[in-house]
Design brief:
Elements lengths: L1 E8 L2 H11 L13 E15 L2 E5 L7 E4 L2 H21 L23
Antiparallel strand pairs: 1-2, 2-3, 3-4
Helix pairs in contact: 1-2
């Protein structure tokens, strides 16, 4: 699970370039700041194995998901997906959700039915 902080770029090309610069910083908190003018958002990202690689998604942003052949590719792709998703929400006049703290994730064992 990664926490990703982003600032929205003036354009998609700048967002892609910024995402490439911080790829190594994820899963730690990464702040992209160069050329950004809007407020800072922080999202939890889940990256899980898939049949053909890795699936990455943001639980608080329904529909914001991507895939990658490697974890690093999934990280890079989800950064871009988040930026584009939030940018689209703002352009459509939607409110960007803010995650509540603290986030608690655990693994549970459930006995199989007999």
């Amino acid at each position: 699970m990664a926490q990703v902080s982003i600032r929205l770029a003036a354009g998609a090309a700048a967002a892609r370039a910024a995402a490439e610069r911080v790829q190594a910083a994820v899963p730690a908190t990464a702040t992209i700041s160069e050329g950004y003018t809007l407020e800072n958002y922080q999202f939890t990202v889940v990256i899980e194995p898939d049949e053909e690689g890795y699936h990455a998604y943001v639980p608080v942003l329904p529909g914001c998901h991507t895939f990658g052949a490697t974890i690093d590719e999934a990280r890079t792709n989800i950064l871009e997906a988040i930026e584009l998703h939030v940018e689209s929400m703002l352009q459509d006049g939607e409110t960007v959700p803010i995650e509540r703290e603290p986030l608690f994730i655990t693994r549970l064992s459930v006995p199989a039915a007999a």
